């Protein structure tokens, strides 16, 4: 009787810890997917800084306008995207950006070689997938007894 109670409590703890680990990294997972897609399918171009607003802690949300080459009928020839930058930028200045052909609103300032998503990949594999394994083990554990 005590053994089955211990297994039930252990299974509940495993389910909670696994769920928390998997859910806590959802934002990191989305950032990882975005950066990986930009690294694989990104197009380098230049963008014009249109506007900026203070976002707190010395950061500014800057809106850029890019001219998309080879546009489809679905995509406007001029697309805006936002990026968070440290410090102010001179409006009207031209910066290098990388954007996704499938969704040009997913852009990032810099060049293709600057995109590094290894830290996000490690977090996704360590916390996300191991959290799912612990969750499933916690669900299966009471049924084994």
Name a few traits of the molecule.
single chain, alpha+beta, 5 strands, 30% strand, elongated
Explain what this protein looks like in three dimensions.
This protein is of the alpha+beta class. It has one domain. Helices cover 46% and strands 30% of the residues. The protein has 3 helices and 5 strands, in the order ααβββββα. It has helices at 2-24, 26-41, 118-144, and strands spanning 42-56, 59-67, 78-86, 94-100, 107-109. Strands 3-2-1-4-5 form a 5-stranded antiparallel sheet. The longest helix is centred in the C-terminal third of the chain and has 27 residues, at 118-144. It is elongated. Mean pLDDT is 82; it is low at 72-76.
What count of helical segments does DSSP give? 3
In sequence order, what are the helices and strands, one letter per element?
Answer: HHEEEEEH
Distance between the termini: 11 Å
Shape: elongated
The radius of gyration computed from the alpha-carbon positions, rounded to a whole number of angstroms, is: 22 Å
The whole-number mean of residue pLDDT values reads 82
Helical fraction: 40-55%
Sheet-strand content, in percent, reads 25-35%
Number of strands: 5
Kindly report the spatial arrangement of strands forming the biggest sheet.
Answer: 3-2-1-4-5
């Amino acid at each position: 009787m005590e053994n089955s109670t211990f297994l039930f409590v252990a299974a509940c703890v495993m389910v909670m810890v696994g769920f928390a680990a998997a859910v806590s990294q959802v934002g990191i997972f989305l950032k990882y997917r975005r950066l990986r897609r930009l690294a694989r399918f990104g197009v380098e171009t230049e963008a014009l800084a249109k506007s900026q607003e203070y976002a707190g802690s010395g950061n500014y949300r800057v809106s850029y306008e890019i001219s998309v080459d080879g546009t489809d009928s679905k995509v406007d020839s001029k697309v805006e995207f936002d990026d968070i930058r440290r410090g102010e930028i001179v409006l009207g200045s031209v910066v290098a950006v990388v954007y996704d052909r499938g969704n040009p609103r997913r852009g990032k300032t810099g060049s293709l070689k600057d995109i590094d998503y290894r830290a996000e990949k490690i977090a996704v594999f360590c916390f996300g997938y191991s959290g799912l394994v612990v969750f499933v083990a916690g669900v299966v554990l009471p049924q084994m007894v």
